[in-house]
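To: structure desk
From: M.T.
Subject: fold request, one chain
Message: Could you run this one when you get a chance? Sequence is below, nothing fancy, just the single chain.
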Amino acid sequence: MEIITIFCGGNAEILEISENRVRFKPELRDTEGDWFYWAFEVTGAAGKTITFDMSPKNYVGYFGAAVSHDLNEWHWSNTALPDRTGFTYTFGADENRVYFAHNMLYHPSRFYKFAELRRLPVNIITTDNKGTPIPSVTVGSGERNIILTARHHACEATGDYVMEGIIDEFLKSPMDGFRITAIPFIDADGVVNGDQGKNRTPHDHNRDYLDEPLYNGVRAVQTLLAKGDVAAVFDLHSPWHIGGRNDTQFIVRKTFESRDEMIKFGHLFELETTTEAMNYKLENDIDPNVDWNKVLTTATTCGTYAGTYESVKLGFTLETTYFGEVGNVVSQDKIIESGRCFYRAVKRYFEENNK
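Reply: Done. Structure tokens follow.
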């Protein structure tokens, strides 16, 4: 049996391998403090039952590990240990290569294939600091631009599935006078390398909206905003590992000035959310200066920075759960459907505002 971490998104420090047990922990690299992302590949374990142990850390979700054979299609193992400090897996007789991860990863090749199938030209908006291309697509041709961003934190894959749903629904029902610019991998280097991304030193990408940003992806967003035609910016994230509102979807309200507009939008999003999507309830949104959501003295996050532009009517972070909960379990299809619901709320918001 071999444990492999050198692949797009791979992350684990392997501590010990025995006949039927693997001990590992997340590799933090340049993350300050602790974080929970991990992903690895197992070969040569066909026919065996293996326990993957990361104790004392309990960084496995409610439904076990995310499992894939191709880094594209994912399902849950449903074999978490009782204290979520690991999981077990019984390999089939012909399962010679299996990927396991903290959550359902979103490989960059999936985005290129998504764009190809919908005949959307991919524009390399810039290259990241270490040379990884940062792709984007534009849908629609209206004068007003809506910017979608994801992966300011490299490990937060749910936002890319939401982005797929938003784009698909726009193609089905465009907004007159609007176009969408979608940038799925702001921290493209981190996505490819399998970094945590969150709390990266000296600061992560979502604290880089400064006069002189460190990261090329952030600079590309700033350039788009400076054109003065951006009506909205939606920054798509995943939350903390597990528990409470982190098991749902919620909007992060960073400023008191825009709170009423965010509540207005949240009502529409709740109305548009279907049973096929991940659960969203307005009551789960987090207000400024509640818990960890401190109002910043400077607009260094994507959503708050966008709000400093007069043309931007709505700018915020949407957090989409990694796992969900019993009766509302994450799947790739359900997160994509959440994006479709989100777009319908955006369309209603601007239609009602225009009236």
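Reply (cont.): The CA atoms of residues 125 and 348 lie 29 Å apart. Let me know if you need anything else for the meeting.
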